[in-house]
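[job 4471] stage=fold_predict status=RUNNING
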Amino acid sequence: MTFEEKALYHQIHPLKLATDIISTFPALYLLWQHELLWGLLVTVIPSVIASYLLVRYANLEPNKQSAFGQYIRRYMSRTVEAVRLLGLVVMMVGAWYHLGWLIGLGLVIIVLGWLRGIIIPQRKGEQLWL
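[job 4471] inference complete, writing structure tokens
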């Protein structure tokens, strides 16, 4: 498996998904308390460690062969990744300014990024990732 494939398929590994989801809650809490450095560290460090370990050591072939793997191969472009990151940033700004609705909006942006292929299906022959 190439590095590019590993970079793609590690995103749907249960450990990566759990790390990102679980670390978001304490990060948002810390940002709510205006602990910028700690909030950013809690957001970034667990995610980077999980990504490194998965790309370096995990067998991601089952992820590639899964239905979810086929879905992200078709629809997870760099643009969609940027949309997901934008959603996280919106959530973080919402936490900083104590705006619950902005946290919710960020979550909606992230979910819409993951659902891009369902909301706007790819045209026949269009290749988004590899």
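[job 4471] summary: The two ends are 12 Å apart (CA to CA).
[job 4471] exit 0
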